[in-house]
């Protein structure tokens, strides 16, 4: 029985050390730019031997890839929360962007790995793929409240809107070192202006949609 318990104990210890390395990387990313941090730095901050750190990650880039996946999942959980009440689809987009801005303000590591110009290309590509899921969440939020028109390749359009907002977030960090409220508003304008090329300004609310079988009199 004792021998059978060893793998589970070893696995738990390994998970604990891995979590400690990820937590240490988060802390360091609040203090330094991502390209100024090494895996040795992370191991020292976590209080873990260098050899153990290299057992889990080949290099800092591999750790960043795991961390950015966690950060993207956290952000998406924030965005996925219900949005109500709403008066129009632009309000939905604005609420999502406000939520994203609040998340980035509270998580400097997310700013570094998802928005910064110093982000390693491989990590940025990983986060861009996660943006596809984020764009689906926005699309679903709008679709929950409004009847959207049948637009070819609609998911691609929403993805581009997310990238437009990300661009303004990134410019704010590059130019000002922080997310300015004015730049968050610019992000809303850019995303809504782009989506407005495909979505009518006013969409019919789903709660105004007739039930199946109900005939709507002609206007």
UniProtKB/TrEMBL annotation:
Residues in the DNA-binding region annotation: 38-57
Domain HTH tetR-type, residue spans: 15-75
**InterPro entries, per the entry:** Homeodomain-like_sf, HTH-type_TetR-like_transc_reg, HTH_TetR, TetR_C_22
PROSITE patterns reported in the protein's UniProt record: HTH_TETR_2
MF GO annotations: DNA-binding transcription factor activity; transcription cis-regulatory region binding
Kindly indicate where the leader peptide sits in this chain: none
One Pfam family recorded for the sequence: TetR_C_22
Q: Does the keyword DNA-binding apply?
A: yes
**Alphabetic keyword roster:** DNA-binding
Keyword DNA-binding, does the record have it? yes
- At the top level of its lineage, which domain of life is listed? Bacteria
Know the name of this protein?
TetR family transcriptional regulator
Q: Give the species this sequence originates from.
A: Govanella unica
Q: What lineage is this protein's organism placed in?
A: Bacteria, Pseudomonadati, Pseudomonadota, Alphaproteobacteria, Emcibacterales
């Amino acid at each position: 029985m004792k021998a059978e318990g060893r793998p589970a104990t070893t696995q738990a210890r390994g998970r604990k050390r891995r979590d400690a390395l990820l937590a240490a990387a988060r802390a360091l990313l609040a203090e330094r730019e991502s390209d100024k941090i090494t895996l040795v730095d992370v191991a020292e901050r976590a209080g873990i031997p260098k050899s153990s750190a290299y057992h889990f990650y080949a290099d800092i880039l591999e750790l960043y890839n795991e961390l950015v996946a966690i950060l993207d999942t956290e952000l998406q959980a924030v965005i996925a929360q219900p949005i109500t009440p709403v008066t129009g689809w632009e309000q939905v987009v604005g609420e999502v962007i406000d939520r994203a801005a609040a998340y980035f303000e509270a998580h400097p590591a997310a700013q570094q790995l998802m928005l910064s110009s110093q982000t390693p290309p491989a990590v940025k590509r990983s986060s861009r793929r996660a943006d596809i899921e984020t764009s689906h969440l926005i699309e679903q939020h709008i679709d929950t409240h409004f009847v959207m028109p049948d637009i070819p390749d609609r998911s691609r359009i929403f993805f581009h809107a997310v990238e437009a907002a990300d661009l303004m977030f990134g410019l704010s960090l590059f130019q000002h070192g922080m997310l300015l409220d004015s730049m968050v508003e610019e992000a809303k304008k850019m995303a809504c202006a782009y989506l407005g090329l495909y979505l009518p300004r006013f969409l019919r609310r789903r709660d105004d949609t007739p039930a199946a079988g109900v005939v709507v009199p002609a206007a």
